[in-house]
Here is the input.
Amino acid sequence: MMTVSGISTEERSLIKSYLFLRFIHRVFERDCRIIQESGIFKTPELYVELVGSGAKKTAVLLKEIKQEFKSRSMKVFEISRSPDGVEAHYSCRGYVGCIEILWPSFQQEMMTRMRAYLGLTHDFTDRASAADPIPSAASPFPAVH
Here is the structure.
């Protein structure tokens, strides 16, 4: 990821969150359509409700980030995908820059966030203790890095 000295770590985190939320929101909406139209599920309403709730959460978060962008004079004006990853060109208080996130880390962060937005905050295949399935500090929204 390329950083520009004119923007803060928090502003870079907002841009990254915006990128993840845009991609995740589109995936949730597409998955809802596929579940509804596939005819494979006996109870598609249940799955559409689950994935739809994730889409609603991402829509709310996107709206909040856009409001924050406006208050900070920030704008993402181009997003592109390449074989290497996702690249976003932005402006922030007069500074223009670019952030690139490589596919392996982008996909891993997307999965982590998608699980959280769906309420699947626990990976049962990799838990340290079967006696305590839900950590006390579990949050439905992962920290932005």
